[in-house]
Amino acid sequence: MFTGIVEELGEVVRTAETGDDSALVAIRGPLVTGDARHGDSIAVNGVCLTVVDVDGDVFTADVMGETLRRSALGALRPGAPVNLERAAALGSRLGGHLVQGHVDGVGAVLSRQPAAQWETVRFRLPAALSRYVVEKGSITVDGVSLTVAGVGPDWFSVGLIPTTLKLTTLGERAVGDPVNLEVDVLAKYVERLLGDRLPGGSDQPPGAGGPTPGAVEPTPGGGGR
């Protein structure tokens, strides 16, 4: 579990296909590797990955084909910056919101509007996820915990403060760039628990009967507002 507060802006060192629909990624992150061990979870652009090995300030992780297909990690190349966050520790402050590191879908930057002290960014929102996104609610974009400023049937917008623009990849995302999205898990549980008691609802799991958002990897997401 994560909080969506990015600890460090890391860098992809190398990627390599390992066969059998999977890949190995090596990422440099001096802060997150300081106490990292084999089996630990680190969120990379909002995707929870399991540490396979640590060599100095570089850690490696296996990435399943499912993750490559359902997230934007497959597009990473050496030199690319990535948002990094270690798994939250019990007893620590929850600065963002509860983030699983299981990507629900891939969106894209639609527009950027700079202002004096912040920037409004609009993202494309997959139709299957729109019912989970509400104004003033929480959403995770590339591992960054953000508050929804506005929402439409196929888009949502957020306001990015200077710290987020400077310390995460969101400051450099251009129009058209893909981003990993994770909606608030509480919304999905509420829908599932209410089942057919909701008007027009059913006891099917979220996404049934349409495109399946699908979690990315059953291991741990990173942050700012």
Automatic annotation (TrEMBL):
Function field: Catalyzes the dismutation of two molecules of 6,7-dimethyl-8-ribityllumazine, resulting in the formation of riboflavin and 5-amino-6-(D-ribitylamino)uracil.
Gene3D superfamilies given in the database record: 2.40.30.20
Residues of the Lumazine-binding domain: 1-97, 98-194
Disordered: annotated span: 196-225
Class of this enzyme: transferase
MF GO annotations: riboflavin synthase activity
Alphabetical keyword list: Repeat, Riboflavin biosynthesis, Transferase
Entry EC no(s): 2.5.1.9
Protein name: Riboflavin synthase
Taxonomic lineage: Bacteria, Bacillati, Actinomycetota, Actinomycetes, Micromonosporales
GO biological-process terms attached to the record: riboflavin biosynthetic process
Catalytic activity: 2 6,7-dimethyl-8-(1-D-ribityl)lumazine + H(+) = 5-amino-6-(D-ribitylamino)uracil + riboflavin
Residue stretches spanning the membrane: none
The keyword Phosphoprotein belongs to this UniProt entry's keyword annotation: no
Extent of the Lumazine-binding repeats: 1-97, 98-194
Subunit organization: Homotrimer.
Taxonomic source organism: Micromonospora haikouensis
